[in-house]
Amino acid sequence: MTQIEILKAISHRTRIEILTQLKRPEEHFADQGYPVAMGVCAGQFDRYGLSQSTVSAHLGTLHRAGLLTSKRIGQCVFYKRNEVTIAAFLDELDEMLSLDGALRSDTVQAKGPLIPA
User: Fold this and answer.
1) How many C-beta neighbours within 10 Å does residue 58 have?
2) 38 Cβ neighbours under 8 A, 6+ residues apart
3) Which PANTHER family did the record assign (predicted)?
4) Which residue from 33, 31, 39 is spatially nearest to 77, judged by alpha carbons?
5) Does residue 117 fall inside a structural domain?
6) Angle separating helix axes 52-64 and 13-23, nearest 10 degrees
7) Is the residue at 40 inside a domain?
8) Alpha-carbon Rg of the chain, whole angstroms?
9) Can you give the CATH number for the domain in which 18 is found?
10) pLDDT per residue rounded down to tens, the chain (117 residues)
């Protein structure tokens, strides 16, 4: 995927929340009834208060951008973050946009997070 496609995929708050929660699935999806090592069953994302088709569209967008992997097991499609793609994208973005490491760290500490928790 290109950087532009990934940026488009993460340009929606719900998709950012999905990626953030999948970062630590054991904290957010421990009640799913399946080991989180398998991934998170698509049905677990109903907590966003969105229709199943809307959640499916968000998951599909992230999957097509290469940010998620999926595996169907029985009736459920399990999703995991694609850490290789995410790390490569962050490295490319860092290379394109950052100052040197020391200045970047100071700037982030002074400004705080871009997306409030």
Assistant:
1) 20
2) 71, 73, 78
3) TRANSCRIPTIONAL REGULATOR, ARSR FAMILY (PTHR33154), TRANSCRIPTIONAL REPRESSOR SDPR (PTHR33154:SF33)
4) 39
5) no
6) 70
7) yes
8) 16
9) 1.10.10.10
10) 688 999 999 999 999 999 999 999 888 888 888 888 889 988 888 777 888 899 999 999 999 999 999 999 999 999 999 999 999 999 888 888 876 655 555 555 655 555 555
The answer as to whether 51 is a domain residue is yes
Whether 116 maps to a domain, the answer reads: no
DSSP the chain: --HHHHHHHT-SHHHHHHHHHHHSHHHHSGGGSS-GGG-EEGGGGGGGS--HHHHHHHHHHHHHTTSEEEEEETTEEEEEE-HHHHHHHHHHHHHHH---HHHHHHHHHHH--SS--
Q: Which domain holds residue 38?
A: 3-111
| Terminal-to-terminal C-alpha distance of the chain | 28
Q: Which amino acid is at 98?
A: S
Of 41, 42, 76, 38, give the one whose Cα is nearest residue 56.
42
> Residue 77 has which token pair?
């499609």
DSSP string, 39-57: -EEGGGGGGGS--HHHHHH
